[in-house]
C-alpha cells in the first residue's frame, strides 16, 4: 500500500519535558521510549497556543490562532473551514476519531467520518457538566486553589474515560474489515487535571520526586506583571512544598498511566495493521506548569506550558533513534501527514512538512522561528512568544517590557535578559520578527468583539434543554460516551 496507515495518539496537557526518553530522570514512560527508540523524537516541539481549543484548531487547520481567529475554549472551529482530516479523507483514507478533540458546538466531526467515543468536556458553550462528570473533583479540572487542595491519589473520571477510549480504539482495530488506508486519532484527556493518580503510581512518585522549591516573595516580585496577574486571578502564588509535591506526584502518575494506554494502542496496531506500513505519532496539545515558577496548568508563556512531546515512528522508513534538535510545532502535523498520505494540500497551512527530515534523518534548520500565542478570557491580556535557535522572546500586550531568555544557558528561564545591553540586538531582531505576524492590538480587538457573542450564547444555553443538547453533542459516536462519575472510589457508568 503506497499510502501508510496513520495513528495519532493525542493527549491533553502533557508537559514535553516529562518524558523519560526526553531526559526526565524520574518518569517511567517505557512505551513513549519504545516509540522514540524506533523512530524520531522532536526534542524542541511547541504548541502554537497553550490552550486546548485554539491549539487543536491550529493543529487541524494548519493556521495560527490569529489567522484562524480562534483564541479561547469558548470558540468553535467553523464547519466550512477545511482541516487536514478533510485532506486525508479526500485522498481516500478512512478517518476515525476515538475520544477527545475538544470540538465546541454541534459539529463534532470536522472531517472525521466516524467517531467511536464522544468527548469528556461539554461541547455546549457556557454550560458546565462538571458535577455530572467529576463529582468530588468537579472544580479540579479548572485553574484554581481547589485543584491544588484536592490533588493526590485516588480514582478520577479522567482515567475511566481514557480507558474507555482506548478500549474502543483497540476493539475497532481488531474488528476492522475496511480496505482503505486508515487515519485513526485516539484522543485521551490525561494527564490533564484533576491532579489525581492511581494509588500505586502516586505513592511511587511521591517517594522518589525531589523536594520542590517554594516561591518566595522576591521570586514573585521578579516575575513579569502578566505572570503575577495570572497567579492572582487563580488564587495562586503561595503553595506549600507539600502541595507542589503532591501535584507533581499525581501528574507523573497520570503520565505513566497514559503511557500504559499508549502501549496498548501500539501493540494493537502492530497486531492488526502491521508496523511496516503504519505511522504512529504521539503528541499533546500543550503542557502544564506543575508548579514551576509557581505556575500550574497552561495559558502562559513558560516552557512547561508551551513544550509538548512529539514522536514519529514508521518501521524501516523513519530511521530508528533520531533526535531532532531543531524546532517543530503542532502546525507542522497537518503538512507532514498530508505529505505522507499524498493528500491534497491544506489551504493556507502555515507549518512545514517534516516528511523529508524524518525519512532522511536530517535535522530541522536551527534558525527556524516558532511562534505561540495566547488570548484567553480568564483575566489576562494577549501574549505571544517567538523562539529562534537558543533564544526566546515573549511580548505581553499593554507592557513595554517583555522577557528574553537564552534557553541554552538558562533552560529553566530564571534570568530575564530583556534589559541586558549585550542582548539588545537579539531582542530587537526577535521582537521585529514577531511583530511581522503578531498584531497584538488587532488580536485584542478580535477578542473584545467576540465577548458579546459569547455572553449571548451563554444566555441562550441557559434557556435550552441542556441535557438533550449535551447528550446529542457530547455523546455523538458509535460507542456510547458514558458518565464516568467516580463515587467513593467506585466507577459509576450511567
Folded structure, characterized:
By secondary structure, the protein is α/β, with parallel strands linked by helices. The protein has a single domain (5-368, 465-493), classed as Alkaline Phosphatase, subunit A. The protein is built from 17 helices and 17 strands. It has helices at 30-37, 52-61, 65-68, 84-90, 130-134, 145-149, 157-175, 199-208, 217-222, 225-233, 241-272, 303-306, 331-340, 355-360, 424-437, 440-462, 466-474; strands at 5-11, 39-46, 94-99, 114-117, 152-153, 182-187, 196-197, 278-284, 307-308, 310-313, 322-329, 370-374, 383-388, 391-396, 403-406, 484-487, 490-493. The strands form four sheets. Strands 1, 2, 3, 4, 6, 8, 9, 10 and 11 form a nine-stranded mixed sheet that branches. It has a four-stranded antiparallel sheet with strand order 12-13-14-15, covered by helices on one side. A two-stranded parallel ribbon has the order 5-7. Helix 2 packs parallel to helix 13.
Amino acid at each position: 500500500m503506497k499510502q501508510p496507515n496513520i495513528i495519532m495518539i493525542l493527549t491533553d496537557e502533557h508537559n514535553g519535558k516529562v518524558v523519560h526518553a526526553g531526559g526526565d530522570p524520574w518518569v517511567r514512560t517505557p512505551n513513549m521510549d519504545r516509540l522514540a527508540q524506533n523512530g524520531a523524537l522532536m526534542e524542541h516541539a511547541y504548541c502554537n497556543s497553550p490552550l486546548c481549543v485554539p491549539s487543536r484548531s491550529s493543529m487541524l487547520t494548519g493556521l495560527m490562532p490569529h489567522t484562524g481567529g480562534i483564541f479561547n475554549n469558548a470558540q468553535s472551529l467553523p464547519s466550512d473551514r477545511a482541516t487536514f482530516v478533510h485532506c486525508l479523507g479526500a485522498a481516500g483514507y478512512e478517518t476515525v476519531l476515538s475520544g477527545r478533540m475538544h470540538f465546541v458546538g454541534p459539529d463534532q466531526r470536522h472531517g472525521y467520518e466516524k467517531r467511536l467515543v464522544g468527548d469528556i468536556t461539554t461541547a455546549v458553550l457556557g454550560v458546565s457538566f462538571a458535577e455530572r462528570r467529576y463529582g468530588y473533583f468537579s472544580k479540579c479540572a479548572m485553574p484554581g486553589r481547589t485543584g491544588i487542595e484536592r490533588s493526590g491519589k485516588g480514582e478520577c473520571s479522567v482515567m475511566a474515560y481514557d480507558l474507555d477510549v482506548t478500549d474502543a480504539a483497540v476493539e475497532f482495530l481488531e474488528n476492522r474489515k475496511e480496505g482503505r488506508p486508515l487515519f485513526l486519532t485516539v484522543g485521551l484527556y490525561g494527564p490533564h487535571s484533576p491532579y489525581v493518580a492511581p494509588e500505586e503510581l502516586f505513592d511511587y512518585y511521591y517517594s522518589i520526586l525531589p523536594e520542590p522549591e517554594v516561591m518566595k516573595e522576591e521570586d514573585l516580585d521578579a516575575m513579569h506583571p502578566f505572570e503575577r496577574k495570572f497567579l492572582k486571578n487563580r488564587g495562586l502564588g503561595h503553595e506549600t512544598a507539600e502541595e507542589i509535591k503532591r501535584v507533581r506526584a499525581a501528574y507523573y502518575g497520570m503520565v505513566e498511566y497514559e503511557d500504559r494506554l499508549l502501549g496498548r494502542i501500539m501493540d494493537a496496531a502492530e497486531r492488526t495493521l502491521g508496523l511496516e506500513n503504519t505511522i504512529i505519532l504521539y503528541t499533546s496539545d500543550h503542557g502544564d506548569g506543575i508548579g514551576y515558577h509557581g505556575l500550574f496548568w497552561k495559558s502562559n508563556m513558560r516552557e512547561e506550558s508551551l513544550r509538548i512531546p512529539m514522536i514519529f515512528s514508521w518501521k524501516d522508513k523513519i530511521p530508528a533513534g533520531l533526535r531532532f534538535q531543531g524546532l517543530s510545532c503542532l502546525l507542522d502535523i497537518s503538512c507532514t501527514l498530508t505529505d505522507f498520505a499524498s493528500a491534497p494540500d491544506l489551504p493556507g497551512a502555515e507549518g512545514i512538512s517534516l516528511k523529508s527530515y524524518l525519512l532522511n534523518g536530517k535535522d530541522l534548520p536551527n534558525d527556524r522561528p516558532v511562534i505561540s500565542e495566547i488570548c484567553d478570557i480568564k483575566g489576562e491580556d494577549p501574549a505571544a512568544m517567538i523562539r529562534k535557535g537558543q533564544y526566546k522572546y515573549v511580548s505581553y500586550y499593554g507592557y513595554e517590557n517583555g522577557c528574553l531568555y537564552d534557553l541554552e544557558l538558562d533552560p529553566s528561564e530564571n534570568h530575564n535578559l530583556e534589559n541586558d545591553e549585550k542582548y539588545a540586538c537579539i531582542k530587537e531582531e526577535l521582537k521585529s520578527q514577531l511583530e511581522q505576524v503578531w498584531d497584538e492590538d488587532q488580536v485584542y480587538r478580535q477578542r473584545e468583539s467576540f465577548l458579546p457573542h459569547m455572553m449571548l450564547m451563554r444566555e441562550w444555553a441557559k434557556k435550552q434543554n441542556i441535557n438533550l443538547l449535551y447528550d446529542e453533542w457530547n455523546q455523538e459516536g458509535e460507542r456510547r460516551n458514558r458518565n464516568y462519575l467516580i463515587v467513593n472510589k467506585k466507577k459509576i457508568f450511567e
